[in-house]
Amino acid sequence: MIQKYIIAGALLCATVSIKAQEVVLKGKELFGNLEARHIGPALMSGRIIDLANHPTNSRILYAGAAGGGVWKSTDGGATFAPIFDEHAQSIGAITVDPNDPDNTIWVGTGEIWTRNSVSVGDGLYVTKDGGANWKKVGFDKSERISSITINPSNSNEIYVGVLGALWGDSEERGIYKTTDGGKNWEKILYIDQTTGAGDLVMDPQNPDVLYASMWEFRRTAWGFNSGGPNSALYKTTDGGKTWNKIHNGFPEGNLGRIAVAVAPSDPKIVYAVVESKKDKGLYKSEDYGKSWKLLNGDFGLVVRPFYFSRIVVDPKNPDILVKGGLNGSISRDGGKTFKNLGAMHSDIHDIIFDINNSDRMYVGTDGGVYRSWDGGATLDMVDNLPLSQFYHISVDNEEPYNVYGGLQDNGSWYGPSSSPGGIEARDWTRVGVGDGFRVLRHPTKQIIYSEMQGAQNLWRYDIAKNQTKNVKPLKVKGKADLRFNWNAPIAISEHQPDRLYIGSQFLHVSEDQGDNWKIISPDLTTNDPAKQDKESGGISKDKSGAETHTTIFTIAESPLDEKTIWVGTDDGNVQITTDGGKNWTNVVENVPNLPKNTWVYHIEASVHNEGTAYAVFDGHNNNDMNPYVYKTTDYGQSWKSLVTDDIIGFARNIQEDYENEDILYLGTEFGLFITIDGGKNWSRFTNNMPATAVHFIDLQKKTNDLVLGTHGRGVIIIDDISPLRQINQATLNKDVHFFDTKPYVVTEEGGFGGGSTELQFVGANPSSSAQIIYYLKKRHTFGKMTLSIEDMAGNEIVSLTPGKSKGINIVDWNFRTKGPKVAAGKTLTFGGFTAPRAPAGSYKAVLSKGKNRYETTIEIKNDPNSIVTESERAQQQKIAKALFDDMEELAYLVYRIDEIIKTAEELKKNDPKAEKITSAVVSKLNDLKKTLVVTTGDNYVNEAEPELREKLSELYAEVANQFETPSAGQLENKAILEAQLDKALVTFKTIQEKEVDKLEKYLAKNEKPAVTYKDKAAFLK
């Protein structure tokens, strides 16, 4: 019995020991230097929420985006750079501290123009070093911060206006004040859980006087309500201790959103745009808000107050004011009359005037930032802000593959994943207008499907013929009117390439690319009439179709069985058919711990098992910010949650890895999360990946690229995620592990890019090099570590700089070997920097850490599309090698000349008797050297005539960089230059036998150090 207990105890210890050895890596420890690249586009940019400028330096300004973070310009708005990538990318307000404008900037997160697709924020941030580092200072549950106002005489006194939650009640709303620079906050104005601070402005001449616009509002998935009895405009004259409504002259009854602005040059003048049922429009006060007068009710001033509620007054002229709106309105007579701003993207959200010149303006729109130099008459778009807001993306199988997607208010597009010189604006092609959503490429034909909001159009675009047809399904006799979501789902069958699906409340299928449709389901939604056809908007009617509810939102045909189709609805149903639509089962009741009617945002049918699928539910429009991610392996009969505390933000999309079912990629409101163990542990990917909303994920099967459609930072690609597939406990417990890589192809195609200007965004291309990918269990900190490429015989051909980070390291090798030794001269010869390409074949990558050596094999292949024959390739390599040797022969010759001259000149300096001998040597050798290398001039305007080195290096570079056999002209040029080199060697030998020989005898006779130099092998080493 005692023996049994001993055995059991030993087994228990063994189990504990095994568990203790399990390695779990998180974040950068897992991903190492696997890095995302941004391809934009920027030609249609994205929604700008707030603009702010430096109070004394007109070159510095800031732009806050709906989902793309904070961007800073130091050149007057010509270009911008991101400074807020690690934090929530939805921005509500930016304020520069007037007392420390070079260093202190405050940012409130959470978009305040409350359309149904807005992102959320997570609090208030401050930087004390101009944006290099940020610190959160509270308001974690604020969701949306509309205003930040700082006392111009006291940076410790700050007011914050919290608009608050869009989709539910919140006690975080109201006006807050700090008197200690943000350490402590006091709520100084609060109405109720439904009424937030829409605007907060300070009298520029009296910091105790503030105006606060309080707004009662609520959005649901099927409607919006703006206004109520609690909407009001308040004023304080004692720094927020007491507040009073200032409605004298305002409309009677309930009010909605109120925009307010104080004229900086004359603060007794206050403007307000009031949302009301009657007498809505622009009101003006000329007595600090004591009384108001209605001046103007133009459509441009009152349209969509929830979306356009910003008034800006010229800092020097109180009669010039601008109002955000559909086109933007400007008045130059104190608000009596308005005209539209100049041509630019519609939907104007913010405007700022240049601090020195009011004719210079900056405008934030749904399409990015615009600049004007003539008071808004004409405008120029800033071309380098890649803030595109994708709802959906997809990829094709072209080489390079294309990325397709639809954008918020910016149509539908496709563009290449790589392009010569980088991915430029001109590389993108428009395939839709309006709000773009799903864009799909036909698997086998030159056909693209795209749609615009609410399936108003479903286009079938023939690329080759440049023809477009609307193939949207129409109402069927005897059936109900069709309800399409604003973001209506379409899907292409993986089994029948001409088969196309679209969802209304029914599932529609076409077997002929949309020419004919049939309905293959009953109404798959809850069909709740309370969530249909309701008046939306509240005080201001706003029924655009964006609130159409009880609709199908996601469709997933199983890639393993065409009769198995999953459908998810925006009102919470998960429907499945296993017989091609004849029978349907709602399996959402089987999902544990899921609040009822939670939006089914995405269903992913597994490529590994027929009964397996993943479902992502989004409850944020029920004011539920929790992520819901589930997996079923039995056709929805049971579900398992994959959510852990590692996931931040509500989830929107999931992508299953095609090869390793334990690897999943999850997009949330705050970025990308990856699991390599089936959901037990998730890691946030942050390598050049901002905390932006990831709305859709696709995986390109040929390249293994993870392609992300973000709602604020365009398309982001992580190239070749295949190393993640090879990570397991065996790998993680090794000190060093090399990942298997596919053969690398030396691409021979070329082309010209680089047509963009310095002010335009250009998307990054993927690496065209071979990559040595390895895992380090620990970061290398002490001792020598080297990485080299060797041929299979063990000869080193090039040395590389190793990555030393814990986790995955990726080192590029550009297929080049060591470059030639180049003759020294007065100037550089750029051809001499060219290294020969390694021929196709197998090579060893060798990592040395101290006494330990680790190696892996890399295979290089020639381009399969090459027009170069093997014999031509061999000839090119032979001639390149000969010219390489010529370069080094010349280098060794010049080296010897220099060493002899150095010895002779040293002797001449110390021994006047030797002048005749040394002068002869130096003169002869310098005459020779002048024919070999450039000995005068510089690398720019004082350019000397090329000598042998320059001519030889230019020819060498041409031949080494090309793939085809050298031309007759190149071969003839080679013969000419080699003849010159041979002649120079003969001349040098003659000088050696005469002048140098006399020098050497003199040195020996006078017991002085002899002429010495390295032998050729030592010199070239």
TrEMBL record:
<feature type="region of interest" description="Disordered">
    <location>
        <begin position="521"/>
        <end position="544"/>
    </location>
</feature>
<keyword id="KW-0677">Repeat</keyword>
<feature type="domain" description="Sortilin N-terminal">
    <location>
        <begin position="124"/>
        <end position="249"/>
    </location>
</feature>
<protein>
    <submittedName>
        <fullName>Sortilin (Neurotensin receptor 3)</fullName>
    </submittedName>
</protein>
<dbReference type="InterPro" id="IPR052025">
    <property type="entry name" value="Xyloglucanase_GH74"/>
</dbReference>
<dbReference type="InterPro" id="IPR031778">
    <property type="entry name" value="Sortilin_N"/>
</dbReference>
<feature type="compositionally biased region" description="Basic and acidic residues">
    <location>
        <begin position="530"/>
        <end position="544"/>
    </location>
</feature>
<dbReference type="GO" id="GO:0010411">
    <property type="term" value="P:xyloglucan metabolic process"/>
</dbReference>
<dbReference type="InterPro" id="IPR015943">
    <property type="entry name" value="WD40/YVTN_repeat-like_dom_sf"/>
</dbReference>
<dbReference type="Pfam" id="PF15902">
    <property type="entry name" value="Sortilin-Vps10"/>
</dbReference>
<dbReference type="InterPro" id="IPR036278">
    <property type="entry name" value="Sialidase_sf"/>
</dbReference>
<keyword id="KW-0675">Receptor</keyword>
